[in-house]
Amino acid sequence: MAVTQNRAQALHNFWSGFSIVEGLTAVYVHAYDESTVPDDKDIPAPKYPRITYTVGNAEFENPVMLSANLWDYGTSWERLSMLEQDIFEAIGYGGKLLEYDKGKIWIQRGSPWAQRMSDDNKMIRRIYINVIAEYFET
Amino acid sequence: MGKFTKVASDSFDELQMNAGVLLSSFDPTNPTEPSSDDIIATTTGGIHVVCEPTYSDFGEDVDNVPNNMKEYKHLDGWNCYMGFTSIKFNTNNVRLAVGPADLSGETYAASSDTSVVSGKTYYTRTGSGTAQSPYVYTPVASPTGNPSTSNYYEMTTPNYKVTPRMELSDSDFEDALWWVGDKADGGCVAIKLLNALSTGGFDMQTTKNAKGTMSMTITGHVSISAQTTVPMEFYVLEAPAS
């Protein structure tokens, strides 16, 4: 069956595919392109944790560094640590191939992989993730 | 853009990705994720696989015949090998690198299990334990019953010594050594090396503040019982149907 999503949709669907487990419930994690994150009031529940990711394209054989921020609001790093571990395993050691209509994106773990970032608001928690993306398209 | 600046539409499906693994066994009719026991070596720098023919040009010394005339070309044979650098140091890897060598030092004790434990290897013992008739322990292919009353033994200490030998024996050759690597479309590429023996010997390099490495060259061999069989086979397998 032909793949109909484009590059941006492929990236969005990848970052949107995560949820974390709280007790017996799976909490869906919303993902947004960094440059178009809605206002807080417009983000549907659950507002946190959430992922914002960068989008960037490059030619075949020219990998590009992309990043994502994992955001949470609260006093514990636990949810973000679980989410970061899920993303780490989803990409896997050899990377993950995302299909789109004209080719594939090879996502690999970047280095440094994940770093905790501080914020003036002590309740805001953020983990900054580096990934490498190579676009297989000519 | 020029009409000849393009690639085939399936180019990116056919890419081979990542270094792949070296396996002691693999079933190309049912390619599944390998278990840790099947992975022979932990490698660094990828694996180099070569299957190189050697040709003679029978027309070379024939007057008026240009070189490389195809009708005069003769295939002499094949040189098939896998070269890699292993960072896994255990007796099996050292023995694989050396080639003709024996493993020793293992100890055994009678099993006290009252039923077969799945995944455990049991051994039967022959011999009298004397220098003239040393004990020989043979793995039981399909253990059944009560190991403690079936004269089954278990290995209590694994072998720790690798002794190179002055003579080559048939058991030094591995029946098959496989390299298997992923393809971008979810399938895999597999290469089988037959009658594999290390011809590069044991070649180790250590470095300050870094991992020790063992370079190996494992060559495939033809067998007298299959003289026309080239010792390398290639498989390109589709992704399993989801």
Describe the structure.
- The complex is a heterodimer of chains A (138) and B (242).
- Chain A is α+β, with helices and mostly antiparallel strands.
- In chain A, 17% of the residues lie in helices and 43% in strands.
- In chain A, the strands form 2 sheets. Chain A has a 6-stranded mixed β-sheet.
- The longest helix of chain A has 14 residues, at 78-91.
- The radius of gyration of chain A is 15 Å and the shape is globular.
- By secondary structure, chain B is mainly beta.
- In chain B, the strands form 4 sheets. In chain B, strands 1, 2, 3, 10, 11, 12, 13 and 14 form an 8-stranded antiparallel β-sheet that branches. Chain B has a two-stranded antiparallel ribbon with strand order 4-9.
- The two termini of chain B are 38 Å apart.
- The relative contact order of chain B is 0.21.
- The model of chain B has no long low-confidence stretch (mean pLDDT 92).
Radius of gyration of chain A: 15 Å
Distance between the termini of chain A: 21 Å
Strand content of chain B: 35-45%
- Strands of chain B, count: 14
Shape of chain B: globular
- What's the total helix number of chain B? 1
Summarize the biggest pleated sheet of chain A.
6 strands, mixed
Strands of the widest sheet of chain A, in order across it, are 3-4-5-8-7-6
Residues in β-strands, percent of chain A: 35-45%
* Protein chains sharing the most extensive interface: A-B, 9 and 9 residues
Question: What brief labels describe this structure?
Answer:
heterodimer, A: 138 residues, alpha+beta, two-stranded antiparallel sheet, 8 strands, 17% helix, globular, B: 242 residues, mainly beta, 1 helix
